[in-house]
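Quick question, first post here. What does this chain look like in 3D?
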Amino acid sequence: MLAKMEITLPPWINAELRVNERSEELIVVLSQKKSFAFYRTEFHSSVLHLADQKDAYFTLGADEVSSAIVDIATGLAVARVLFTGCSKGGFGALLMASLCSAKDSGRQYSSLCFGPQTRIHPENPRVRFPSYKSLLKKALEDKTIAEALARYGDVTHVPSTTRSTIIFGNLNADDRSEAESVSGENVALVRLHLKTHSVVLPFLVDNTDRAAVIDIVDSVTQAAKKQQDLQSSLRSSAMVDEILTLPRTKSLATLCQEALSGSSAISVFSE
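> Answer (accepted):
Ran it through. Tokens below.
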């Protein structure tokens, strides 16, 4: 589908577009890893999956990527676009929503982020992930990366042309500080009584089902063996009980639909 639409993306951005011709909405999922995130989630809209193979928080080639997204939205004739992601994917969601809304004022652009980093330039001591430390080292040797970080590395101001909902664990000092540093008239902060950085997990399963919660935490634990960033933030022994203590949460797909509706106050818990 991307080829048919003649959309050009930087070669280090992997992409897959799934079109729902009955929908006037597009969800752009920005991954926190090199493979796609939320890949098995059944969204009700067209979905564009993006994964940054250079772990540059989607800053490298950001202008080209945002222009391509606007072109895709135009080609699909959608009225609303939502960017979503967790951790560095959440940073990318905030960045792309801002850039696209500035380029395309005739369409609604918004973001739904889970525990995002919100400033990666100048160096941010709250961002402790190995991939971030590696990125900073690369920036010392690569002028293109350094310039991208300097231009796009701070998403703490959400412009009035877009709106953002940021969900984070209020017991995680780093995540709380990152979220609370974001300003803008259309910013909503949603605090969960969690310490884990993997704050999206309760929205991927029935969080009142102990067996289901154990299964997803086990899967994250297994994935952490291959993902240094995930391993550095993992607290698997406490995650199950933390998630089970929350009221019943809505699904990620439901949250995305509510965010696309333009609601200024998203309720994350089921009635």
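The chain has one domain: 13-203+250-260.
The chain is about 35% helix and 15% strand.
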